[in-house]
Design a protein that fits this description.
Layout lengths: L8 H14 L4 H11 L2 H10 L4 E2 H5 L6 H13 L3 E6 L2 E6 L1 H15 L2 H6 L1
Antiparallel strand pairs: 1-3, 2-3
Helix pairs in contact: 2-5
Length: about 120
């Protein structure tokens, strides 16, 4: 079952949707997301993860900072549902949560006015 306690994509999507729809129309979810995106280190982590899953150690090897600092950034990205971790034996592989990124892009496109109808004309 996708919507269980495992930290997989189904769980992350469910968590994000429940925050978006049941807590003030997404204001808080978007606030967390944009806060997470505001830091250049976290944006770099997202860029690294677009190539595929990585462990915290693999991510940390790209930065000159402590493991605790990397863990802090990963925690904020997880809280914003931009990434999710999947435990494999003694390691956690982190992956992008593309459904949240798609939701953000969709919302931003509505600010342009017209949405899909404007694209089709």
């Amino acid at each position: 079952m996708l919507l269980d306690n495992r930290r997989g994509i189904g769980y992350s999507v469910f968590r994000y949707i429940s925050k978006y729809y049941f807590q003030g129309g997404g204001t808080m979810a978007f606030a967390e997301t944009f806060k997470a995106l505001s830091d250049p280190v976290r944006r770099k982590i997202l860029e690294l993860l677009k190539e595929g899953p990585l462990s915290a150690g693999d991510i940390g090897s790209h930065f000159d900072m402590t493991g605790a600092t990397i863990s802090y950034h990963l925690k904020l990205l997880e809280q914003a549902d931009l990434i999710f971790g999947r435990k494999e034996k003694n390691f956690i592989d982190y992956q992008l949560n593309t459904s949240v990124l798609e939701e953000i892009m969709l919302w931003i496109s509505t600010l342009k006015g017209g949405g899909q109808d404007a694209e089709n004309t």
